[in-house]
Amino acid sequence: MIKILKMKDITVDDVLNRKIEDYGEYENTVKGIIAEVRADGDAALFRFAKKFDGVTLDALEVTEEEKNSAWERVSEDYKAMLQRAAANIVEFHKMQLHDGFEIKRADGTVLGQKYAPLARVGIYVPGGTASYPSTVLMNAVPAKVAGVDEIVMATPPDKEGRVRDEILAAARIAGVDRIFKIGGAGAIAALAFGTESVPAVDKITGPGNIFVALAKKQVFGTVGIDMVAGPSEILVIADEGADADTVAADLLSQAEHDKLASAVLVTADEELAKKVAERIEVRLADLPRREIARASVDNCGKIIIAESLGQAVEISNAIAPEHLELCVKNPFDLLKKIRNAGSIFLGYNTPEAAGDYYAGPNHTLPTGGSAKFSSPLSVDDFVKKSSYIYYTAEGFDGAINDIVTFAESEGLQAHARSAEARRK
Fold it and tell me: Which residues fall within 8 angstroms of residue 411, CB to CB, at 6 or more apart?
């Protein structure tokens, strides 16, 4: 049974209960895998496919024939659904596109900022017990909207050496250019450093298990990464008008992801809290992934009884959840008070699942409280900014004294002299 806590009896620190994990054992394993890929290239990737995925591959890259066959096998209804979801994601992410700017001064000085898309990005799509066409769309579509030249996808093969048809269909719709049957830390190393078959990329995005997360962390600096994601999180703020069964269903939608996933309800209505706890038990009974969800609810789930909706918002801002549902009568009033959350779902009729698959905003979100300082995956992750400066002789002459003074105050005489050299 999920824990029910009264805020008057605990502190926010009790609610957070976050600790820094020591992944030393895994980090050494990942370091070894990366070293093997750097040393042996494709040969290491073939070895890892056999060792970790249980399959002997003939080739690492998905062929055009495989892509076309998968497209034919996927039903027209499913492809139409993917296309509708992709259109929603395109519409939302197009609004994130930026124009540069330019400042022109009377003396002829020009200052500006320009945007340029990354040349090549790698997206990682997990395999294993489940596979995620939604991850393909959420990573590849923003890259495509940003204008990235080439999108390379890595995803683990199944025991037959195939990539799931729905994954390949989503990749076609999203505009992925090349797809490789590689997974885990080895895939991240291949994307970061390149092999005989796999091209090196400029940035890697996409979720994965602990080995993928640590590999992304270790290759950062050689390539960019989106984030190091932790277990999934949902926090629901609900008032007396919320339906207990619906709230229970939404909490379980994240609990089924991972035994370490966090599902939290904050409400000022004690009766609702009790009903939600009861409905969680009922819904768990026939949930296909109930073993995972059960562990998540028992170990990481909680219902917090706040003294008011205002206090519920304070608790939420302290937790900074990945997903935040405002299951309240007037969600837009509450929205103004939310400072820290990855993605926010408003009202009684907007489940978190709408954001995972279909609505348009990205589902790659900051976890572990990092919503206090970071943002969802967006077009911004696939572009970079450059500033530029132009001085006329007259314009620079007016700036020389200040530049020289500043440089000399830092003891950098060559800087000062490079400015002095241009004095009229």
Answer: none
Taking a C-beta distance cutoff of 8 angstroms, is the pair 59, 42 a contact? no
Q: Which whole-number Å values give the CA distances from 50 to 35, 158, 190, 396, in the listed order?
A: 18, 11, 16, 63
Q: Judge contact between 382 and 118, C-beta under 8 A.
A: yes
Which residue type sits at 82? L
pTM of the model: 0.93
Kindly list the averaged pLDDT for each block of 10 residues, start to end, along the chain of length 424: 89 68 82 98 97 95 98 98 98 96 96 98 85 94 98 95 96 98 97 98 94 96 93 95 97 93 96 97 95 95 96 95 97 96 97 95 94 96 97 95 97 97 88
Question: Residue 237 is encoded by which pair of tokens?
Answer: 């703020």
**Closest alpha carbon to 46 in 147, 191, 157, 170:** 157
Beta strand extents in 272-392 (DSSP E only): 302-305, 323-327, 343-346, 383-390
Q: Among the options 322, 325, 352, 363, which is catalytic? A: 322
Given 323, 325, 352, 363, the catalytic residue: 323
Q: Which residue has the tokens 């939600």?
A: 276
Active site residue 325: no
Residues paired with 191 in a beta bridge: none
Beta bridge pairs of residue 294: none
User: Which residues touch 189 (CB under 8 Å, ≥6 apart)?
Assistant: 33, 34, 37, 38, 215, 219
Given a contact cutoff of 8 angstroms between Cβ atoms, the answer to whether 419 and 401 are in contact is no
Nearest in space to 267 (alpha carbons), one of 308, 297, 298: 308
322 is catalytic: yes
